[in-house]
Amino acid sequence: MFSNFDTSASGLTAQRLRMDTVADNIANVNTTRTEEGEPYRRRMPVFSSRDSGSFANFIQRRIGRFGQADEQGVEVTEIAEDESPFKQVYNPEHPDADEEGYVEKPNVDITMEMVDMIDASRAYEANVTALDTSKNMAMRALDIGGA
User: Quick check: helix, strand or coil at residue 63?
Assistant: First the structure.
């Protein structure tokens, strides 16, 4: 029963990191120069399942042998950079403009970031609901045992 708490908690952690990444992307929408000397590149978290999904782990769970390999949920394996091209904007007065007057701007699309933020927010809410449901089930089970 407590594995439900761990699963929901991993989802909450992953979606929180996703929202933080989106916020970082939005904050850097106009950053034309980073330490690498190029515009900011959009970042995206890469999720993977913590459950190996192997048949052996399934059998071990069914017969009651739990171990570290039996963790379920999600984890962030990396923060990947979007390799799409930078936006070219004509602004000859900008300090980072090239000889033709074009400035390379970050490959961050505000609309896409807002959609990602809404999606992450909804996923976060779904994990909170699942966690609350698991908690209520545990409380009811304790009430049954205490009666």
Answer: coil
For the chain, the structural domain boundaries read 2-27+43-81+108-146
What pLDDT, in 10s, does the model give residues 44-100?
999 988 765 556 566 666 666 555 445 678 889 999 999 999 999 999 999 999 999
Residues 6+ apart with CB under 8 A from 141: 1
Location of structure tokens 């699942």:
130
C-alpha distances (whole Å) from 119 to each of 44, 108, 142 are 13, 17, 35
- Point out which residues pair with 47 in neighbouring strands: 76
